[in-house]
Structure formats: structure tokens, C-alpha cells
């Protein structure tokens, strides 16, 4: 790319690891505008992106930006492109120069008709190399769950700043995000959306274990100073679900009260620095952080926090008042006793003790599984050693968390039908001391299931890669031909299928970050032999810029890139965050599912394939259909597209037998040409989502999506469901458009009409409102006579 008379940028050379070795990428700073690492990606596929290096060079007194990517990193993408269209040269050109020859300069010509910007219609297939530009100031910015952000210097954010769960933010040495408060009374300037299994991750640019790769892959020293900062305003932020690694200082604030829940600070120089105001720390991990707390004249409360491998527990002003409850100090060198340290029911290993109700342990209290280094080890004294006299919100959340590790299946082979249920004990009794993880009952990497595999309600399953690459090592589970992996959750006890790094401290070489096909794969050579992934009330999450939840392992079948591979996916009443649900020959049905920042689509396709969505809500997602086979069906009905990118304009988009889109909903400002239907609903402004017992995507009263679908609710299994916070049950009315939740009573319990303890939606398994053979009568009172038989 040639630049004419540009200002000269400040150039910072960074190492960039590629498949062909390490190269240099120039970060270009033009004051408030910067060019940061870019990505090469294929148009029309869900394949992972490849890092692009760039250099700012002067050649023959002309200024160029040169972008490059290793050929072997994009070789498969290039082979998948259609034949090139060549122009006729006269005379033909058969030789190349032995030296770099620049094209002549081409300057735009002015005309009296004004300036027009045009663009060619893109091909359905292509390979794009692109750098990203950012400004040093933002207003009302959203850090999206499907994006990795690189902060190369100080960034100032104004207005309302949203951090979505799943986003990854990477920092250069002095990178920093400073949030500027707005005028009093206006919207909060921080909306933090990290949740269980969907944390927000801040880390070093050289950390390649999560998100897009920007650096060397080997973090050296500390980065970000501070990574996040905000100061005096009458607003008390709550930061929930945050992992920070390799920070010079993770967090700084002054003059405010701030609360942290479910946080990890890993390999940092300083953790939390608060110079004024009060701090509240609930369920947190400080792992190999030199100084955990740097405080000045504040009152700070820490409950169920693990401090391990620290030089200083706390440093700063002598007027600090620090209180610890249910915490663990392991290998902490200094507690600096001239501060006011209050302690109750804390545990100590190889650390100075203080407070009352002390519990000590004579051996190292932790065990490592994967990249989770702080599960309590067998026989340690810190189990059930805490007090229940803690923050009630924390106490309730600990009952959903664990200090027990997962059972690991690594490079294993399953040959008999296997059913797995929750085994990592949730802390429902007297609290254990220290940090509690989101549960992982099992973790799978490089494992083959040559038999059916079932996960029961409430089971949390993580997946990892034993190494990078498109092989068994690059996936969690490979399903053998005709076999099934079943996730059988419920509305109140969903199953989970997540990347292990959404829970643990990262990958750290134990469970590789790397690249590969994804979580669950299959590569049957015929459609009839295709294995199946079936999900009921299952939540699937991964971090930004990760891979596929499920897909055929295209190209890995006998090493033949032209061979076909097949897999079926059937998902009901399930939720997906980040990641991809696409592939070359995936046959998929998604019924009543929520997709946030998730890719859904079909690329190329194979005979007999299909992608079908019914009553789904897609927010900030991508829906793409690019078919090269005539008998691949794409059908979407009764689905909400909220800020979703759509690309379905392939060669079969106008064929109603193959492209079936109708009764879907959009905002009236959405720019879309496909898919469209005669009965689509346009919503003015936003969808105005509401929150209630089971989630945050209920419809507001009077929504035009109510009773706007193409059939009745009982015909699509939604008889016992609702879309409204008043819990109005659908029954057999015209179905509402979008994702539905199970209807509940006033206390958030799924409706149980006959009071037998089994919710209606479970007794009526197919959700059609009828008592079919094998189902229990959900609406009839049950009488139990003395002889023990049951009368309906």
C-alpha cells in the first residue's frame, strides 16, 4: 500500500511468531491513530485467522506499507480458492524481473462531479490480508467477546465502556486503559459482563495461549502499567470474572469503592493498587504475583482469596486496614505487620500467621491439573475450615464452585458406552478456604470415543489440545463413525462444554493453546456413517479468536484434503458464547438456541447437508452460508438477528427449495439483503432485552415479536416455555420469534402443575403439550395409595 506525503510514525518493532519462524512486525503510531497487528483470513469460511506482519519502508523515495504472511500458513486457504481469472496480455509476459520493480504512481484525478467511493462486489471466496487501526481515545466502546484487542500504548476511554465476557485484551509494556468518568447522574462508565466460564482476560501481547497471536509466544517481564485504571467518581464498579496475567500493575484506582468477584492475578508484579476509597475482594487468586495489594489509607476486605508465591501480601501506607477471612497464604514471604491486619478462619502454609481461628498445613496444599495450579490437594487441612459469616453473595456463589480438580481423559480411547455425571464436589457445606474454581468435572484432550458418550445434567466438561495442529492432538474429543456424544442438561442444571482456559489460569504449555479443528470432531467418510453431537440445555463457551465447538475435521481424513468428512449436530435449548458453529460438511439443526458473538454457517457443503435454525436469537453473531453443492439446505425461521453479520448471497440464495428464510426479526437500521422473507419483523431501535430468572434475553411487554412466528409453540417443542418476564406460557399459541426460556413460578422454579416435584417441561419431553407414550401426565394430580402404586 502506497502512502502519499504521510506523517512519519513512531515505529516499534515487535517479534511475531509464525509457522515459518519469527519475523518482525512494526507497530506504527501516528499520534492518536495507530496501526496494530492485523490478520489474514479466508472469506466464506470459519477457519482461524493468521497473523500478518507489516513494515513501513521507503523505496525509491516513495512510502509503502508492506504486509506479509508465510505462504505455508495460508497454503490450505489458497488451495481452496477457485481458479484465477487471468487477463490477456499483449504481448504475453513470460518472465519476471531480477529486481524489485515498482508500479508507476497512480494519483486520483479530480472532476467537477465531486468525489465518489466505489467498491467491487467481493468474491464468495478469497484471502484477505488486513492491518487494524485504533485510536488512542474511545467513546462508548464495547470490547467484544469475539475479538482480541491489542493495547500498544495509553488508551483513554470516555462514556460507557462495556467489557463482554469472552473478550481478550493484550498489552504492550506500557499499554494501559484509562476509563474517564462522565458527569454525575449519567450512565455508568463501566459495564463489566464477565461471568462463570466467560471471563474477561487481560494479558501480555507475547502470550499466545489465548486469543489472536500478536507476539513472540514467550512473555518476558511485565506488561501494562496499569492495565486498567479509573479514578474519583461517585460510582462503585463491580468487576466479576477477570483474569490478569503478566501485568506491571493489574488495576489502579483512587477515590472510589471497587469490588472484585471471581478474579485471577497470575504472574504479575503488582495486583490491585488502590490509593483512596475502599476495596472488596471476593473469591480471587493471586498466583506468583510479587506484591498482591498496594494500598494507601484504605479499608480493604478479602474473603476466600488464595495468595500464593508472593513476596509481599500488602504494601503501601501504614494506615491500611486489611481484613482477611477464609483466605489461604502459601509461600508468602512478608505480611508487613505494621499494618492493621485482621484475620479470621484463614489458612497458612510456609507463611507468617496472624488473626484468630488459624488453620495451618505442613505440606504444600495445592495440586495441579492441566493449567489449574491451585486445586486443594488430598488430605490438606483447608477443606471445610472456613466460616459462613461472609458476604452472602459470595457464600451463595461458592455453592456453585469447587476446590476439586477434573478427571482428565488425555490421548485416551473409549470403547464402551460411558455415562459421566458431576464429580468435582461443589462447596455446598462449610466453605473450604481459598479460591474456588468454576467446576470442571472432566477434561478431554486428544481423546477418541468409539462408543456413545453421555454427560448428565449439571456436568461441566472442558476440552484442551495436547498440542497444536490438525490431528487428534488438536481436538478435545474425536467421535467414531455412527457414535453419539450426548449432553443432557436441564433448565436449572445445564451441562457445560467449554475450553478449559475459560476456567483455569491459561494453558502454560500443559494444555496447549495452539490451533486445530476444535472441541468435538468427526470425519466419517459417508453421510450415513456420520457421528452425532446432541445437546439439551447445554452452555458452550470459549474465549475470543478460538476455534470450533464441533466440526468435521476437513482435510484430516487419511491426510487427503479432497476427501469428504461428515458430522451431525442437533442442539436444543442451548446457549453459545464466542467460537464457531460452522464447517465444510456439518449437518446441523439449532432449535431454540442463543448465540452471542458466535459464528453459525456452512461453507462449501456436501451432499445431503443442511443448516437449520428455529427460534434462535443471534446477538452480535455471524450467519454465513456459502454453498458449492446444490442439495445443501439453509433454512432459518422465527429467529432474531440482533447486530448480526449476514452473508448468504451465494449461487443458491434465490432457490426457495434450498434457501428458506422467513418470519425472522431485525432492527429497522440493519443493513441486510439476505436472508429476507415476506413475513419478517422490523423492530424500531433496539430489541430492548429484559432479564429474569433464567437469563437476559426476554422480550419486553408489547414486543412485535410476540405471536409473530410461523407456527404454534407446541409444534416446535415450546409448549412450556416463555419469552416474557411475566412468565406468560406459550402453550399452543402462535410462537413468539426468538429464544425462549422455560416458564417459571414467582420464585424462579420451572412450573410443576401436578406438584410431583418433576417440572412440566421434563414430563412432557417433546414439549408438544400432549401426554405421549412413555411420558408422564404433567397436568394431573398424582395420588399415591398405601400399597405404593401410583394412580394418575
Walkthrough of the structure:
The protein is mainly β and 792 residues long. The protein contains 3 helices and 65 strands. The strands form 12 sheets. Strands 10, 13, 16, 18, 20, 22, 24, 26, 27, 28, 29 and 30 form a 12-stranded parallel sheet that branches. Strands 33-36-39-42-45-48-51-54-57 form a 9-stranded parallel sheet, with no helix packed on it. Strands 35-38-41-44-47-50-53-56-59 form a 9-stranded parallel sheet, with no helix packed on it. A hairpin with a 6-residue loop joins β4 and β5 (50-59). The N and C termini lie far apart (77 Å). The model is unreliable at 85-99, 107-124, 555-561 and 782-792 (pLDDT under 50).
Cα radius of gyration in angstroms:
28 Å
Uncertain residue ranges: 85-99, 107-124, 555-561, 782-792
Helical run tally? 3
Describe the largest sheet. 12 strands, parallel
Portion in helices: under 10%
Structural classification: mainly beta
**What is the overall shape?**
globular
Number of DSSP strand runs: 65
Mean pLDDT across the residues is 85
Gap between N and C termini, in Å? 77 Å
Percentage of β-strand residues: 35-45%
